[in-house]
Design goal:
By secondary structure, this protein is an alpha+beta fold. The chain folds into two domains: 157 residues, Beta Polymerase, domain 2 (2-Layer Sandwich); 201 residues, cca-adding enzyme, domain 2 (Orthogonal Bundle). Helices cover 47% and strands 12% of the residues. The strands form three sheets. Strands 1-10-9-2-3-6-5-4 form an eight-stranded mixed β-sheet. The protein is globular and about 65 Å long. The N terminus and C terminus are likely disordered.
């Protein structure tokens, strides 16, 4: 197998490898060791096929019958081992996307950065990925720019795939062939300790994909886990990279943070870890001002109610979504913030609130002009509805955000 240390050295930009003030061994100190396989047999774990969707089982069985390796992987395995009921199921295999499409007529191939196969069963989409490998330097299927992976369609072994994943708890593989769980990087131990460890050098992995920092916060909030100190330490140094992340990915991750039933815990974890200032700068600034405690109370009250509604089965649609669409059109006309503000005011009137100082609209207007504060506006939807039904004015916001 190709040396993992060699892969790390190629992936780190030359300027980051070593300075005259940094010993050479420190630059590769956190390079993952060679994967050590631990097999957890069927009678030693609690995963039941009754808790796996029919679509995922059909894909697993079809791949296995065709002679390919087929594993349930990622968050689904993690949540099943913790006694949860995941909604999304991802599958890893040694079959290429084209080979997967050849097995399923209801399959489509997506993605340029990562080539994936989506097998569609009505409303359910089962994502199938080929084992990721370690690409050679100069490989046209793998592009790394300033440490960030912008294209990666190099395929490899399951051992390489495990090392390429983000957190150790997400690198557990459920084998449909014998119903065992394969652990290559110590994910089972992390589940037992309720800790989140990154695979490899944390700073390097964040530079590859800055959104991993938000994913760490979200998983810690969702699972009640602690982020390992080595994984959290680089936040202050590389958190600014989130400002260059794709808006669509930031918005998607924001919805997962605040509209998955653990929004309050996510907000507090963002604030505690110091990432709030990079993702929601207007909100972070408001919290630092006079009467910031009142604004914090407003935000946390809205998130608490959103969590309650999501847990009760409500979708928790953000009030600012209409403004988001209008903002996209407004940007083309050069009036982003103004049009966003008018869109939010219109959304407020449509919901029946005639007040002029409603915090949601003032916040969402700023958020619609600042792409990184879009997700947090979801927090105010339930507060908006409560105020309308109770015919009571919400608390005043301490000035503009």
């Amino acid at each position: 197998m190709r040396s993992i240390a060699e892969f790390i050295r190629r992936a780190i930009p030359r300027g980051l490898r070593r300075s005259k003030h940094q010993p050479e061994q420190e630059a590769v100190a956190a390079v993952p060791a060679q994967p050590q396989l631990r097999v957890i047999s069927r009678d030693q774990h609690g995963i039941s096929r009754r808790n796996i969707s029919n679509g995922a089982l059909r894909v697993l069985y079809r791949l296995n019958e065709a002679g390919y390796d087929a594993f349930l992987v990622g968050g689904a395995v993690r949540d099943l081992l913790l006694g949860g009921h995941p909604k999304d199921f991802d599958i890893a295999t040694n079959a290429t996307p084209e080979q997967v499409r050849g097995l399923f007529r209801n399959c489509r191939l997506i993605g340029r950065r990562f080539r994936l196969a989506h097998v569609v069963f009505g409303q359910e989409i089962v994502e199938v990925a080929t084992f990721r490998g370690i690409g050679e330097e100069g490989n046209v299927d793998r592009h790394v720019i300033d440490g960030r992976i912008v294209r990666d369609n190099v395929y490899g072994s399951i051992e390489e795939d495990a090392i390429r994943r983000d957190f150790r708890v997400n690198a557990l593989y459920y084998n449909i062939a014998d119903f065992s769980v394969r652990d290559y990087v110590g994910g089972m131990a992390d589940l037992e300790k309720k800790e989140l460890h990154l695979i490899g050098d944390p700073e390097l992995r964040y530079r590859e994909d800055p959104v991993r920092m938000l994913r760490a916060v979200r998983l810690a909030a969702k699972l009640g886990f602690l982020i390992d100190e080595s994984a959290e330490r680089p936040f202050a140094r590389v958190g600014q990279l989130l400002c260059d992340a794709a808006p669509a990915r930031l918005f998607d991750e924001s919805l997962k943070l605040f509209l998955s039933g653990h929004g309050l815990a996510s907000f507090r974890e963002l604030d505690r870890s110091g990432l709030l200032q990079f993702v929601f700068p207007s909100t972070a600034a408001a919290l630092r001002r006079d009467r910031g405690d009142e604004f914090r109370h407003l935000v946390e009250h809205g998130l608490t109610n959103t969590d309650r509604r999501v847990q009760a089965g409500d979708s928790g649609l953000p009030v600012c979504r209409a403004a988001v669409g209008r903002r996209a059109r407004a940007r083309r006309s050069g009036d982003s913030i103004g049009s966003g503000r008018r869109a939010c005011m219109g959304e407020r009137r449509r919901c029946g609130d005639s007040g002029t100082d409603w915090p949601c609209c003032d916040t969402a207007a700023i958020l619609s002009g600042h792409r990184r504060d879009l997700g947090l506006a979801a927090a105010f939807r339930t507060t908006h509805e409560e105020a309308r039904h109770a015919s009571a004015r919400p608390p005043a916001l301490p000035g503009r955000l």
